[in-house]
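User: quick one, sequence for these tokens?
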């Protein structure tokens, strides 16, 4: 009678793996997402660095999807438009006096549109040629800068010095004082040597900004120089656009337009140009990407466990060279899905040094669902933050998995052990965080289920040696064998003594299950013509069930 829901196997994929940048995006069966995007989401939400590193190696060289490519194209268009506008201003103001900029005109507008379109097309084209690991290096702050050593450590002071110079502070001295103050706050170790570099960086930034007081050309060159350096060493295209937007807003609110706007346009254009060397690099390393994963695809939720397992199975076809690292993990996981260990054993494996043990334990606990919730809650109360984070991740996944599989089918599912319909449960962990999950109303398990939307009949028949019998749309359960309550739609008393029937009726009367309490009054009770019951027993039955009738044959359902 047990029925366990499992994910369907994939059809064989008669495709030959292609080079990373040309590999087609393969959808996961039963999902609108590709297996690559599912694994990226799993990596993004993983709290285990060892497991995340293995996922990263699977997808680091995959092509960018068209949806994500559109975002890259948008970024390229913004940087292109910014460079175009700056070039237009240079062309119509090349001989103008300081602070007498003409900010509008047909030439800046035309170049803004032309280079914006060119930048967008370039971004779209490059997004389809370069793998994800390269683009993550462009999004992540300081990937190339960290490889350059300590030179990029003082970019904050450099930028603030430029800001001080643009506001008219006393040149090198003002920028140096600002940079030194920031350095004093930033560095606890080797403070004084680092402060000297902070003062120097702040002063250099102020000098670059001060060039506007001598020549528009020199000022633009200084802004471009600063922007290129920040783009190379700081990286992160979104960060660059953010700096540009913030600088422009501050300028508009506090200092007006003119050379302030042009200076920040120059910095932004230089920043965009400085990002290009990152595109020619080797990409980001797994450890660095893991530390900065909160910067990536934060708008996507953690994928369902079934989707992750389905996506991982496709790696055998599309990543045969890396399948050896996952073969044992998938094999052990399949064994656990068939015959799971006790939750206590799986929770102990969460602390294993081997990522494979932890991976199998996570997914097996999620597959157990409601049966493991209470022990996961206990695990969350452990002494360290890692236990709490892992438990929260597991409970989130169980909530998501059971909601997806069970929430819309509660009236159709029966627990094969309790013969009880499924329902919603909740569990609370520290700080009042609570999670909802679905499982058997009695035992809370959510792994094994019987898809049975039809009638469940409680039978009292001493002449029937069996316990359960399923026929067409009827599941007949012999209460005399089971002696426990279950979700029943009607009762048939064929051969039973007064004592047996009254014991059954007392159980029904003492039942505290709200679902069954509501349904007893609507459940009919049929008594066979050969079953002689006392008037007292009949009175007890009438007090519990909506209709009690003596029949020759029970009505056909």
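Assistant:
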């Amino acid at each position: 009678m047990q029925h366990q829901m499992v994910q369907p196997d994939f059809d064989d994929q008669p495709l030959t793996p292609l080079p990373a940048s040309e590999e087609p995006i393969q959808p996961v069966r039963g999902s609108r997402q590709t297996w690559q995007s599912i694994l990226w989401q799993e990596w993004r939400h993983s709290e285990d660095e060892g497991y995340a590193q293995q996922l990263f190696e699977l997808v680091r060289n995959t092509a960018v999807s068209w949806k994500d490519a559109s975002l890259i194209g948008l970024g390229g268009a913004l940087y292109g438009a910014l460079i175009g506008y700056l070039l237009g201003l240079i062309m119509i103001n090349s001989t103008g006096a300081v602070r007498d900029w003409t900010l509008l005109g047909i030439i800046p507008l035309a170049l803004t549109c032309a280079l914006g379109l060119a930048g967008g097309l370039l971004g779209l084209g490059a997004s389809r040629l370069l793998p994800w690991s390269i683009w993550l290096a462009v999004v992540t702050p300081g990937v190339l800068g960290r490889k350059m050593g300590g030179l990029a450590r003082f970019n904050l002071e450099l930028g603030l010095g430029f800001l001080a110079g643009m506001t008219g502070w006393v040149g090198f001295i003002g920028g140096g004082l600002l940079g030194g103050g920031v350095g004093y706050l930033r560095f606890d170790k080797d403070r004084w040597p680092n402060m000297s570099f902070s003062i120097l960086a702040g002063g250099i930034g102020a000098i670059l900004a001060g060039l506007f007081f001598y020549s528009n050309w020199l000022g633009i060159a200084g802004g471009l120089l600063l922007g290129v350096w920040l783009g190379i060493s700081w990286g992160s295209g979104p960060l660059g656009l953010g700096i540009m937007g913030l600088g422009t807003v501050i300028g508009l609110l506090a200092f007006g337009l003119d050379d302030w706007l042009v200076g920040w346009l120059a910095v932004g254009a230089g920043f965009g140009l400085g990002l290009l060397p990152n595109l020619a690099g080797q990409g980001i390393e797994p450890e660095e990407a893991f530390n900065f994963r909160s910067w990536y695809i934060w708008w996507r939720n953690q994928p369902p466990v079934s989707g992750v397992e389905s996506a991982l199975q496709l790696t055998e076809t599309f990543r045969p060279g890396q399948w050896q690292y996952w073969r044992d993990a998938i094999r052990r996981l399949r064994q656990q899905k068939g015959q799971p260990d006790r939750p206590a054993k799986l929770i102990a494996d969460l602390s294993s040094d081997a990522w494979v043990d932890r991976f199998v334990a996570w997914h097996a606990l999620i597959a157990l669902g409601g049966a493991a919730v209470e022990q996961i809650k206990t695990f969350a109360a452990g002494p360290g933050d890692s236990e709490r984070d892992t438990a929260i991740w597991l409970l989130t996944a169980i909530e998501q998995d059971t909601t997806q599989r069970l929430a819309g089918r509660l009236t159709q599912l029966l627990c094969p052990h309790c013969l009880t319909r499924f329902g919603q449960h909740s569990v609370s962990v520290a700080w009042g965080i609570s999670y909802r999950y679905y499982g058997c109303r009695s035992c809370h398990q959510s792994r094994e289920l019987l898809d049975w939307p039809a009638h469940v009949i409680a039978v009292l028949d001493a002449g029937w040696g069996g316990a359960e019998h399923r026929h067409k749309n009827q599941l007949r359960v012999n209460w005399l064998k089971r002696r426990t309550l279950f979700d029943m739609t009607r009762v048939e008393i064929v051969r039973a003594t007064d004592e047996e029937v009254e014991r059954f009726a007392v159980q029904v009367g003492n039942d505290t299950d709200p679902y069954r309490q509501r349904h007893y009054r609507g459940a009919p009770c049929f008594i066979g013509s050969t079953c002689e019951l006392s008037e007292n027993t009949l009175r007890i039955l009438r007090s519990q069930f909506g209709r009690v009738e003596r029949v020759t044959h029970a009505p056909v359902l």
